């Protein structure tokens, strides 16, 4: 009879241990499922699906800090392209310079005003000169804020009878500002300065 009681007690303990293991396993499984669910929800919230030309494209939202160097380089390139792309048309010059001045502080406006006072833009129009710029590279230092940059570019000045190539090197600092339609990268160029602007070669047309 005591043996039966011992068997029942052993069976009860075994069942109790088994049930505890099952309960703990269920709790761990539920916790893991909740964790993965929240993780998946967080990933999904950073994805946007765009319908373009009948195709669904996936866009991923990212923090600005993830691509600071890339955005600063593109901001600097956009500024230089707008500031130095000129045609013998007063309206085109004004539109391009206005776009550029949204991306920089008073240091850029000062250079623009100096060029205007020296009749640089008037001479372009009267002589039917076009100017283009190719940004070769932009170096960005992210170790200190505001971010220092140095831009290396080549100017192409197209005259009626010749084309002049000039080397242009500028430097400045980029600081964070609010994004807008006029400033999509959310940076402002400060203390912009020209380090080098000299002739490279002259080609006859």
Automatic annotation (TrEMBL):
Domain annotation Bacterial virulence protein VirB8: ranges: 18-194
Domain of life: Bacteria
Transmembrane intervals: 12-35
Gene Ontology terms: cellular component: membrane
Keywords: Membrane, Transmembrane, Transmembrane helix
InterPro entries: Conjug_transposon_TraK (IPR022276), VirB8 (IPR007430)
Signal peptide location: none
Entry-linked NCBIfam families: Bac_Flav_CT_K
Designated name of the protein: Conjugative transposon protein TraK
């Amino acid at each position: 009879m005591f043996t039966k009681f011992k068997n029942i007690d052993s069976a009860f303990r075994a069942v109790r241990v088994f049930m505890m293991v099952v309960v703990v396993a269920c709790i761990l499984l539920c916790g893991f499922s909740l964790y993965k669910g929240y993780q998946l929800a967080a990933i999904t919230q950073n994805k946007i699906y765009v319908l373009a030309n009948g195709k669904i494209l996936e866009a991923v939202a990212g923090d600005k800090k993830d691509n600071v160097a890339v955005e600063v380089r593109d901001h600097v390139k956009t500024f230089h392209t707008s500031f130095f792309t000129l045609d013998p048309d007063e309206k085109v010059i004004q539109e391009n310079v206005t776009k550029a001045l949204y991306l920089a502080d008073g240091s850029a406006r000062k250079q623009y005003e100096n060029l205007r006072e020296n009749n640089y833009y008037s001479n372009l129009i009267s002589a039917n000169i076009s100017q283009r710029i190719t940004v070769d590279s932009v170096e960005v230092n992210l170790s200190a804020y505001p971010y220092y940059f140095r831009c290396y570019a080549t100017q192409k000045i197209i005259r009626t009878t010749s084309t002049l190539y000039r080397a242009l090197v500028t430097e400045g600092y980029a600081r964070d500002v609010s994004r807008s339609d006029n400033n999509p990268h959310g940076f402002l160029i400060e203390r912009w300065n020209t380090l080098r602007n000299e002739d490279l070669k002259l080609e006859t047309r």
